[in-house]
Design goal:
By secondary structure, the protein is mainly beta. Helix content is 11%, strand content 30%. The protein contains 3 helices and 11 strands, in the order H-E-E-H-E-E-E-E-E-H-E-E-E-E. The two termini are 22 Å apart.
């Protein structure tokens, strides 16, 4: 750096620290991978009432997946919410849903704008999903 730039006037802006609610796992978050696993963040699962399982729904006209809270011991078609990771996330095995309704997922898709409708169903819009891109490892010279 040039010495004349060392003492120049700057217009600094401070970067705020994450509050916990806006971090990656602090928002409504869901993904669907090619193995048919739907992954939900802890926040998403808790917003759904933290059920032990979900009913898997599909709207072929609008290409939307729905997850409705269920109870494993009560609902015949309930799929278990399996612990995933150290942050309270859950996984729901939805391979059967993908096969039954010919949902072809070639790579992991993230639902950026998933939400819960007025009937309590988590809506995952396949038309609004975006691929999750993994960053390439940096190479050192």
């Amino acid at each position: 750096m040039k010495l004349d730039r060392l003492n120049m006037r700057r217009n600094w802006e401070e970067c705020p620290k994450e509050s916990g609610n806006d971090a990656r796992w602090g928002v409504m978050y869901a993904t669907l991978n090619r193995e048919g696993h739907i992954r939900l963040s802890r926040v998403t699962h808790e917003a759904m009432g933290a059920p032990d399982s979900y009913l898997l729904l599909y709207d072929p006209d609008n290409e939307m997946i729905g997850l409705k809270p269920a109870r494993l011991a009560v609902h015949r078609n309930a799929y278990r919410a399996i612990d995933r990771g150290n942050y309270g996330g859950k996984r729901v095995n939805a391979y059967r849903l993908c096969r039954e309704f010919s949902i072809d997922i070639s790579e992991t898709m993230r639902f950026h704008r998933c939400g819960i409708d007025k009937t309590g169903v988590l809506i995952l819009d396949l038309n609004d999903a975006q691929p999750v891109r993994k960053k390439k490892a940096l190479t050192k010279f």
